[in-house]
Queue: 2 jobs
Job 1
Amino acid sequence: MLPLTRFQQALLVMLITIPFAVFIILTLNPAWNPAPSLPVFHFYIVTFTSLIALVVASFVLIGIGTTGDVQGTFVSMAFVAMAGFFMTHGALTPGIAIEGEYVSIAVGWAGRLSLLAGGVLLGIALADLPPQMQRWVTLNRRILWLILGVAFAVHLWISFDFPEWLEDAIRNQVFSGMLALLIAGIFMWAAFRAWSTYRRNPRTLPLALSIGLPWLALAQISQYAAPVWALSWWLYHILMLLAFSLAMIALVLEYEQILDFKLTRYFVSLSIIIAALLAAGLGEIAVRLTGIEAARWPLVGLSLVSFMVFFLIVFLVVRHGSTILDERAMALRREKQWRTDFTNLLVHDLKSPITAIRGSLNLVTLVNKDELQADQKRYLRRADQASKDVLGMIDNLLDVERLEGGAIPFNPAFFDTVQLLKECVDSVHDTATLNHVTVSASIPEDLPLVEADQGLLRRVVQNLLANALRFAPSDGYLYVRANATNNQLTVSVSDNGPGVPESDRVRIFDKFQQGQGAERGGAGLGLTFCKLAVESHTGRIWVEDNPSGGAGSAFIFTIPIVRAA
């Protein structure tokens, strides 16, 4: 995922602040803050929100969206806890399923416990835990889940049998206010941590949490401060639904990208959401058409049973299809492993003799440097350069396989961007002079230090320069430009060669692909390596027309800047 631009960051701030503005406006203008008592709608929205939270937890439990067992454990526990307590909040909706003197107290506590448990567990998930605690969590996850289950059981016991115990606490405004501020503060801190995580490693879930957690903070304030049934009170239900939905969408997007994609898990998770929506909708349609309130729940139950039967039938079909896809995916993985092994063997067998050829050429040049004529020296230099190019192709072939398999070491560190770019430009001057190509550069001296894999980026720039040299005509030019804007380092390498047709500008980065009609050397792997290396830094690379006008093209890549502290 690419880092956000300034415009996108401004939109993110608007998404976070608009609900706060709406809440303030409703609170300050009672005439705009009516209180429609809609217990059935309350039950529906709470139940649906809880189901989405359970889907989020199911994706996190299989390792999607989080980094490591510890973070995954606490994030999944957070969403399970919020789903459980919030579902109790819905079940205790007055006039729906349970009647009693203290139901209004128990329903309020269930809602607050939902946000309290979620805030604490998400805060722990996003905190930097000591290694000893991380090891303990990894070894004792079952104990943590047992503690959560016992806490939920105690909550149910008190809510249904002794709700009066909660009355004094919930009517204590000082205690309730301090608890609301504490929970809201935890969510805001967790949002800051999620944003920091996204800045270091742009991924979908941390970005979604950066938006959703401030909404949950406002939900806690709305739950505490707003009058029951008022629009400002309904706001907290809507915000929880939006926050959970945003997290679910982020996890689904990440799940679609993993290699171990299970169609059945995808189908089950999303079917639950769709079935709940349809069942609730049919129940409400029946009530509106017949005017009989008693028709709602029988039809909802009948719809759920019908959907369950239909779901089981379709699930068997999907499962069979998923099995076929898994078998084919396994065959593709075996084929890919065979190709990787063959590539490694080929690289090893080719690299040794070519290295020996280069060594012999250098030895001949060194021993006979005073006896060689100018033409002979030029031929030896060209032979040495050709063997060097072949070695570069072999390295690209090997590294492309490693990058695709995630096996190449990635060693980010802060380094001087200006020095790296100048060294790369200097390294091609001799070859450019030999081919009568002029090399020039515009590299500002104030480019920041960036945190990246210096070796990979050096190879990217060198490959783009070598690529441009092969395209540039005799008496042509090659131009390198760099700048740092919007927290991104942008580097472009342009030439005045034949250019890249519009139809080839995406395909040219694929393995063994070159522009149609191009007379370049190479195996078509250098640009593939560049694309994989840049994307490993969460950057992007593309080709466009020569910005100077006329013939030629410019290859441009950007990577996010993580500045040195």
Job 2
Amino acid sequence: MPRWVKKTEQEEREATLSKIKERTTYEGDCWRYTGGKTAVEGHGRVTYQGRKVVVSRFIAHVYHDLTLETNLTHKVACHKAICKFKDCWNPEHIYVGMPKDNAADTIAAGNFHYADHTQYQKED
């Protein structure tokens, strides 16, 4: 299909899932995305409907009905504590929750890192 022909939402969703699958390695139950990543956190990132979307949020949108419009809801795509990889997109490891749920899972998985503020401490 030529690039200028607009795809249906279903076609675009399937094309994006296909690209994600092409860029995946499997480690046990985790499906790790090996494509582009967010600069700071290391989450997988894809282009969907003309904008950059975190892979776990896209998967939560497809499998768990999470809206992609972040300003309409405070809900986020969370990884269950059994999953230690930020780039994992196994739908069984992802659920829709609140930011506090996401933080609790990150702590339980041992992936939470406190910021190092020592560089900002005042010297005597």
